[in-house]
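Homework help board

Subject: predicted structure for assignment chain

Our instructor gave us this sequence and asked us to write out the predicted structure in C-alpha cell form, then describe one feature. I got the C-alpha cells but I'm not sure how to describe them. Can anyone check?
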Amino acid sequence: METTTSPYERYSRAPVNLGRMNDPTGAAWIKGLCGDTVEMYLVVEDGVITDALFQTDGCGATFACGSFATEFAKGRTVTEALGLSPKAIIDGLAGLPEDHRHCAILAASALHKAIADYLLRY
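My C-alpha cell output:
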C-alpha cells in the first residue's frame, strides 16, 4: 500500500532550492522572533523571477516554508510573487503545525524583502 506525503512532510524532509547565490538581483536576510533566520536570493529577468534560493538555520517547518516560497516565486512576475501570503504558504503545504505557523510568516517576509531589494536596485 502506497502512502502519500503532504507537501509539508516532503519539503521538511527534502528541501528544494536550498543554497546561497552569487550576484542575485534581489536578496534579503530576516530573523524571526523565534531566532530562526532566512536568507532569500532572487534572479529577476524582465520582471520575472527566473531563479530563487534560500538558506536557513531553522527547523524543518522553516525549510518547508522556504522551499514552498521559492517554488512559488519561480516563473512568476515580481507583482505575482508579492501576492504570496503566510496563509497561502500554509495552504500550499497542506497544513503546518500550529506552533510553527510563524515559519510561514518568516518565509513570506523574506521573499517580499528580497523583491523590495530588487525593486530598489533596478
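Reply (TA_rk): Your C-alpha cells look well-formed. For the description, you could write something like this. The chain has one domain: 7-121. That's the kind of observation they're looking for.
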